[in-house]
Amino acid sequence: MTDICEVIITAPDADWLADFTRRLIEDRLVAGANQIEQIRAIYRWGARSTTTPKAASPSTPAPTW
Question: Which residues contact 39 (CB under 8 A, 6 or more apart)?
Answer without folding.
Answer: 10, 53, 54, 55, 56
